[in-house]
């Protein structure tokens, strides 16, 4: 991990003008509850510092944590909204979201559990698990040299989690039209789609999520024609047609531990790993946005922060609870 040595207080100071105007105190649309950047100022003023220190320590121990926590936030908010339903364990008679096929590979739940345990000691029954995920997602981006923004807080935790609903998560095989429709259902626009896809600048994918692009096309080399030919050859070496290495795969950009705009630069060169990523450059509705983010890192940072605030308000519920333990309802 790069540059994980900044303190929590320093991280608050590095919020630049590109995200300063996100100091919104009220809710944006598509939420039933009113959120505030200062929600815990009186009831648990140390909440963000506790979460930051927990996430920072975990990230130093395991460099995969940042990408995993950012993905966790996306996968939680895209199903029932940002209600921490992804954290609930399956029970007798109910298979929960975390055991749905798209979420089997979601990891690092222990980091959220650790932060929640510390919060319960400091401020019992006060900070929701949903807020912990939202704050942790912001922190891992900032720790990885990305933007910092004020997280609106005051979410409640949901009591329902259904594995069969995870079919609604965006797929690495989706085309742009499908993605646009999926995001629109959550009140997110085309620019949000492209900006939030930039979260792939952190992370790694196993072969199963993209190997079909390498072997299943009726082209001379059997690869998706939108893939750079040299890049396709390198991917085939890592993911042969009869691959037996379940850990094999590819980083989603060439600076996978640093939050930057390399993801977009690679897409413009035909080096997007997922079909859904490369499709953004093949569609006129999204191509110019990809180009603009590839050329201007600060623009990407600004739009990503704005879109993360919008995503964090999707489906926020008013009648939930504050779980004492994130994996079970009270």
UniProtKB/TrEMBL annotation:
EC number(s) stated in the UniProt entry for this protein: 1.11.1.7
Places the protein is found: Secreted
Binding-site list for substrate: 170
Keywords assigned: Calcium, Disulfide bond, Glycoprotein, Heme, Hydrogen peroxide, Iron, Metal-binding, Oxidoreductase, Peroxidase, Secreted
Binding site for Ca(2+) 2: 201, 255, 260
Swiss-Prot/TrEMBL catalytic activity: 2 a phenolic donor + H2O2 = 2 a phenolic radical donor + 2 H2O
Catalytic residues of the enzyme: 75
Lineage top rank: taxon: Eukaryota
Keyword Iron: yes
Binding, heme b: 200
Gene3D superfamilies the record matches: 1.10.520.10, Peroxidase, domain 2 (1.10.420.10)
Cofactor mode of binding and number, as noted: Binds 2 calcium ions per subunit.
Residue span(s) of domain Plant heme peroxidase family profile: 34-330
Listed name of the protein: Peroxidase
